[in-house]
Amino acid sequence: MIVSDKVLLDEALRLALQRPQEEIYDDVIVEDDAGLFAGLLSVRQMIIQHSQSLANIMVQKDLANARAAELEHLTEIKSQFLAHVTHELRSPVNAIIELGEMIRIAAEKGYTGQVQDRLALLMSSATNLRSVITNILDLSKIEAGRMQVIAEAFDLVPLLEEVVETTRVLKGDKPVDVTLAARECTVGMYTDPVKCRQIVLNLMSNAAKFTDRGRIALTLEPSNDEVLLEVADTGLGIREDDLARLFAPFTQLEDARTKRHEGTGLGLTITHHLVDLLGGSIGVRSRFGEGTTFSIRIPKRWNPRETSA
Ligand SMILES: Nc1ncnc2c1ncn2[C@@H]1O[C@H](COP(=O)(O)OP(=O)(O)OP(=O)(O)O)[C@@H](O)[C@H]1O
Ligand SMILES: [Mg+2]
């Protein structure tokens, strides 16, 4: 086949493809304007190059599209996060301002009883505000990779006994038994006790919040190199469809308009990250209307290299 050197690659290919199949891959003689021989070109080479550059362009396009979609998704999550945070901070701040004003009026009138009552409410709003802020700070610290594990030797059993006591206070006067079953009376650990406590307390405080009657059972089963902790309650339970999104930030399964329980929906997200930081794992099983069991495994000895978060 003879083509001019002005013929574009596409055109040369089109011409080549018009020829019988067995001749497609023949060399092409290129001639210049004056009809002189300008060189040889292999159609096979052209096809290979052409398809390679086409594939590269497609891969780059795919990558760019994926990056754009990811960025869009991140921006979306960020703005949702900001909206939630602002809302969660504004409600207790509003309550504190209004209660402050009511206390001022009651104090002016000399109603000391009212001053006392409203001060108690103001303190509870302020405490709530502090826990929201602590949660948000914890989460941003974790996500920025700045949450440090401070490992030390400690006994896990007294730590769990203390969490059980706190849970009894949290459940208030609801008819709920809070129990601890530990197979051994001391379990030596070398990891971060503050994070262990936070993990178990988050699960136990959820159980206390979402259980109106029955039982909250914390069990500890140590093995050679790890401990298995389970928090089982006889509370609301969680629908199977909801289990997958439980650990995502700001997930609350109750309808915001009819919500009965307080919280920001950050507890489980933080718990999951903390378990990861300690090199452990977390799982959940539940029956809606019957109860929920969270299971966590934590290595007895923290190993920085096994940490996935
Ligand atoms: N033991 C449980 N029983 C039933 N539902 C639960 C239980 N634990 C968690 N949930 C559901 O999962 C949601 C997310 O829990 P998470 O601890 O992350 O948030 P929260 O308790 O609502 O708020 P926060 O922990 O930030 O104060 C809860 O709002 C609740 O709907
Ligand atoms: Mg919670």
3D architecture notes:
- This protein has seven helices and ten strands.
- The chain is elongated, with a radius of gyration of 32 Å.
- The strands form three sheets. Strands 5-7-8-10-9 form a five-stranded mixed sheet, with helices on one face. A three-stranded mixed sheet has the order 1-2-3.
- The chain has a domain of 155 residues: Histidine kinase-like ATPase, C-terminal domain (Heat Shock Protein 90), CATH 3.30.565.
- It has 309 residues and is α+β, with helices and mostly antiparallel strands.
- Bound molecules: adenosine-5'-triphosphate and magnesium ion (MG).
- The site of magnesium ion (MG) has 5 residues, from helix 5.
How many strand segments?
Answer: 10
Order of helices and strands: EHEEHHEHEEHEEHHEE
In what range is the share of β-strand residues?
A: 15-25%
Low-confidence stretches: none
Please give the CATH architecture of the domain at 152-306. Answer: 2-Layer Sandwich
CATH class of the domain at 152-306: Alpha Beta
CATH fold label of the domain at 152-306: Heat Shock Protein 90
Q: Please estimate the helix content.
A: 40-55%
Number of helices: 7
Mean pLDDT: 86
Keywords:
309 residues; alpha+beta; Heat Shock Protein 90; 3-stranded mixed beta sheet; 7 helices; binds adenosine-5'-triphosphate; binds magnesium ion
